[in-house]
Amino acid sequence: MDLMELLFELLKNLPRAGPGNNESTRKVFSMLYDLPPSPKILDIGCGPGMQTIELAKISNGKIVALDIHQPFLDRLLEKAQTERVEDKIEIKTQSMFEMSFEEKIFDIIWVEGAIFIIGFETGLRAWRKFLKEQGFIVISELAWLKKELPTELKEFFEAEYPAIKFHEENIEIIKNIGYNFVNSFILPEEGWWVYYEPLTIEIESLRRKYKTDQEKLSYLTIAQKEIDLYKKYSSYYGYIFYIIRD
């Protein structure tokens, strides 16, 4: 098992694969305007699909849910059937690096907590061709909220996510590409704990399972440190939803 497999094992029972909650998904969707009656939505890096299900309920649209990890998509389909929205969701097992869609077919591209995989600016540039004119891109991305950062926090992210930028820098990137920046919304703390509370339980379980495997234990220690740092420094950074229009 490599570390990617360990990551998927860590996430396999979680309701989400990253911070977020249904209340925030609904709030951000309510900020969109001039949508068609049944918008076509692409949910990139959908994971197990908590937000996909919520979008299916509130949008009256058709959603293509894309992820590279088939077990996530299987869980999404099962949940969609339970919630009776399976007719609104099409799953696609594909990498966000190699998406094979026609150009200008989506009214909304939705990406919660996944654009870091390809890079904020890279993703915004690469995915624009799939967006209809006047379409929206909604992205949640990790960003600094304060200029003066605690050394412990700064060093952790320099090692684990050096691409993190200040909120204002992300807005400048959006504008420099040629998008219209519409609005932004900081994910509230409760949206983090929807993810972190069950994650803490899974970390402890895997620590017991791999108690003699130092490489895996080291990875799990980093995962726990991320949670501990958020407890201490949540006012310094956060996930920010960026509402962007072509």
Overview of the molecule:
- This protein has 246 residues and is of the alpha/beta class.
- The protein has a single domain (17-188, 234-245), classed as 3-Layer(aba) Sandwich (Rossmann fold).
- It has nine helices and eight strands.
- The chain has helices at residues 3-11, 22-30, 50-59, 70-83, 120-127, 151-160, 167-177, 189-209, 214-233, and strands at residues 40-44, 62-67, 89-93, 106-112, 131-144, 165-166, 180-186, 237-245.
- Strands 1, 2, 3, 4, 5, 6, 7 and 8 form an eight-stranded mixed β-sheet that branches.
- Helix 2 (22-30) crosses helix 3 (50-59), helix 5 packs parallel to helix 7 and helix 8 (189-209) packs antiparallel against helix 9.
- The model has no long low-confidence stretch (mean pLDDT 96).
CATH topology assignment: Rossmann fold
Biggest β-sheet strands, sense, barrel: 8 strands, mixed
Helix count from the secondary structure assignment:
9
Strand element count: 8
The chain-level structural class is alpha/beta
Low confidence ranges: none
Q: Between the first and last Cα atoms, what is the distance in angstroms?
A: 42 Å
Q: What string gives the helices and strands in order?
A: HHEHEHEEHEHEHEHHE
CATH class identity: Alpha Beta
Q: So what's the overall shape?
A: globular
Q: State the helicity in percent bands.
A: 40-55%
Estimated radius of gyration = 18 Å
Question: What portion of the residues fall into strands of 2 or more residues?
Answer: 15-25%
